[in-house]
Specification:
Length: 145
Amino acid sequence: HCESINDHFKSVKKKIYFFKNFSFKNKKFFKIYNEMEVKFNELKELVKKKKIKLNNKVSKKNLILSPSDFGFHNIKQYREKLFFFDFEYSGLDDSKKLICDFFCQPDYVIKIEYFSFFAKKIIGKDEFKKNKELLFILLQLYVIK
């Protein structure tokens, strides 16, 4: 459940700590954990440097029902319409989470050149223009996750 930029960071930090529990038994995993931790901290510092407010809540109009497990495997097309299913992990989220989740799904590779197009379709051209830099930072954050 993400309503602020800080919520995005908390969500990823939780996954990093989960991974950390496995990393101490294996040097390779420990190295990966350290790289994840370094990248996470770099992104957090970048957000602070850009003076992006971490705790500001996203306006209610920008909260969406996010399936979290958003991907082609949970979409069926019938005639000209798309139907989404599998809302087991859904919640009201910042729309930026849906965008990042879509591009970071492990089963499908979505080309980054579609990122702007997709983001504009989800949040609109004006919101995209306003949040473009933040979206690319969050995408890097979700890659860690």
